[in-house]
């Protein structure tokens, strides 16, 4: 019941929370473009597994904060299920198993992974599933293969998982050594675990890293400004109506306004540009630091929210 209630909280937060700057940036740079463009210029900040799932989710349910976060929610449900199986496997008394599950599921770091479209939750879930598969007794070969693929995908999605994956591989080897002769254990470990895990990660990483580049991102807005950006986008939607408009935005707000442009299907909005000090734009969405841009031409402040300004 505790884990079901926690999942319900994740669902509510995924549906009610405004899009964050990171989510908007990920959508605008990785999810929105065709997959051939995403793979042609791979950015290490792109969580490829999440990108592919988010493309499918948005294709099925149209763009919204919830559909963008749906793969994270699915990963969260699998994580909670794996947490419960893992807790029952290592703690026999039900009360102790519940305590272990609560400690893992209510960890503050993991609470934010599964109602946002950040992509970090998928490799964590894959790693925990791999650990649970390794601890099965007796340990069938199929479990080793699945655990290896899970770890390989986790490393391919986030290369920083290489060290945790290596630690889990050591756990797997120790489990095998405790259950059989050393020679047989090393052979099974190499054939059933090490080779599939390395092959999975290597193939994906080689394909992606051959097109890797680093993207320069502006400083992100605050949580209050992220909520304010949604309010201003809704105000702009009502003010601009159906006529074609050009919109400029502060660098940190540009991905958010482009996200809401797609979210509300405002095809009459041109793709939002980073603001410039000229009069060629119809509207400006600015942070307090950039509000001086609007002062360089006769402007009218149409709305304010969380320190942000909508002007024309």
Structural account:
The chain is mostly helical. It folds into two domains: 2-209, no CATH class; 223-311. 62% of the residues lie in helices and 6% in strands. The chain contains 13 helices and five strands. It has helices at residues 2-16, 21-31, 35-40, 48-61, 65-90, 94-105, 108-111, 121-134, 141-157, 162-179, 182-209, 223-240, 254-263, and strands at residues 247-249, 273-274, 283-286, 301-305, 308-311. A five-stranded mixed sheet has the order 2-1-3-5-4, covered by helices on one side. α9 runs parallel beside α11 and α12 packs across α13 (254-263). The longest helix is centred in the middle third of the chain and has 28 residues, at 182-209. The protein is elongated. It starts with a helix and ends with a strand.
Compile the SSE list and pairings.
Elements: H1 2-16, H2 21-31, H3 35-40, H4 48-61, H5 65-90, H6 94-105, H7 108-111, H8 121-134, H9 141-157, H10 162-179, H11 182-209, H12 223-240, E1 247-249, H13 254-263, E2 273-274, E3 283-286, E4 301-305, E5 308-311
Parallel strand pairs: 1-2, 1-3
Antiparallel strand pairs: 3-5, 4-5
Short structural description:
The chain is built from 13 helices and 5 strands. It is mainly alpha-helical and 312 residues long.
Arithmetic mean of pLDDT: 82
What proportion of the residues is helical, as a percent range?
55-70%
Domains (count): 2
Span between N and C termini? 52 Å
In angstroms, what is the radius of gyration? 23 Å
- Overall 3D form: elongated
Given helix and strand content, the structural type is mainly alpha
The helix tally amounts to 13
For the sheet with most strands, the description reads: 5 strands, mixed
């Amino acid at each position: 019941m505790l884990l079901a209630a926690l999942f319900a909280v994740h669902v509510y937060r995924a549906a009610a929370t405004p899009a964050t700057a990171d989510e908007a940036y990920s959508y605008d740079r990785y999810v929105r473009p065709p997959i051939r463009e995403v793979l042609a210029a791979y950015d290490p900040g792109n969580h490829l597994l999440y990108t592919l799932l988010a493309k499918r989710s948005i294709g099925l349910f149209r763009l919204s904060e919830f559909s963008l976060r749906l793969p994270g929610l699915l990963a969260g449900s699998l994580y909670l299920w794996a947490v419960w199986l893992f807790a029952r496997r290592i703690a026999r008394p039900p009360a102790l198993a519940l305590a272990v599950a609560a400690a893992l599921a209510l960890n503050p770091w993991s609470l934010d992974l599964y109602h946002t479209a950040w992509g970090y939750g998928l490799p964590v879930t894959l790693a925990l599933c791999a650990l649970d598969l390794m601890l099965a007794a007796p340990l069938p070969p199929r479990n080793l293969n699945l655990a290896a693929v899970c770890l390989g995908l986790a490393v391919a999605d986030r290369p920083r998982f290489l060290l945790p994956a290596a630690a889990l591989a050591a756990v797997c080897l120790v489990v095998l050594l405790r259950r059989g002769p050393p020679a047989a254990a090393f052979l099974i470990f190499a054939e059933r675990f090490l080779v599939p895990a390395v092959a999975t990660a290597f193939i994906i990483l080689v394909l992606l890293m051959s097109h890797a580049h680093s993207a320069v991102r502006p400083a992100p807005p605050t949580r209050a400004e992220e909520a304010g950006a949604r309010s201003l986008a809704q105000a702009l939607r009502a003010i601009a109506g159906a006529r074609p408009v050009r919109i400029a935005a502060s660098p940190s707000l540009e991905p958010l306004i482009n996200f809401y442009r797609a979210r509300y299907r405002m095809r009459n909005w041109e793709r939002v540009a980073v603001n410039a000090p000229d009069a060629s734009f119809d509207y400006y969405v600015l942070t307090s630091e950039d509000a001086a841009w609007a002062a360089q031409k006769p402007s009218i402040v149409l709305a304010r929210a969380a320190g942000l300004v909508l002007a024309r």
